[in-house]
Write a structure and sequence with these properties.
45% of the residues lie in helices and 21% in strands. By secondary structure, it is an alpha/beta fold.
Amino acid sequence: MILIADSGSTKTDWVLSANPQQVIHTQGINPFHQSAAEMAAILSGELLPQLSVGDVGSVCFYGSGVRPELEPLMANLLKEAFPQAERVEAHGDLLGAARALCGRNEGIASILGTGANSCLYDGEAILQNTPPLGYILGDEGSGAVLGKLLVNALYKGRLSNEIVADFQRQTGLDMPAVIARVYRQPMANRFLASLCPFIHDNLGDPCLKSLVIDAFRDFFRINIAPYRRRDLPVAFVGSVAWFFSEQLTEAAAAEGFCVGTVCRSPLLGLLRYHAV
């Protein structure tokens, strides 16, 4: 059987080809932010107890932070966890998104989850990529950036008192607590992205709706326009793209683009890709 992983900054989803409907969840694995020991502990402590290791013949891992220079490290950790596997691959999540969304066809593939990324794909390889730069310097349209924009709007007087009160009541957070979570605790990107459900539930507020659409317009203008392929639809994977698909489509139209396939997860697309 083939074991396929889709790993973001927040969580990792694992699926076996023999049972594609059963998804195994662990916390996110990111070799850029985590040590080898931390990642090995997730594999041994969270993943392996949920699997019959001997049944796994191939492992294909696609993850955030798996840059080319970190692929050998990630592959070696997986080989240690699955010593019987005949084939082990580790790639960046962007290639996984492209393979899941486009298969072996040309297209523009994008990720909108906790982070954001995009590429021009020729059916085999990534031809062009606008560097995402992370949620502090870039990641336009991502969950972390939407959360950051929400916090900014909350405490700089751009949202109604009712929205501010609802936020504090629903999350139990006030401004000092938010600042402490962002600046004094690890994984600020995960925390900020966790505020997206509040945004989604309050899209009836014109300011919040505009905040989301403007963030997505930034994504298209800054990240997609440089590919100079307005003839191609822009396909997406990720929870932010999935839950905010209406606003994403509106932003795309405003910037002269067309949204193609939108999937919450790339797993089924990757299963189809690797089954060929």
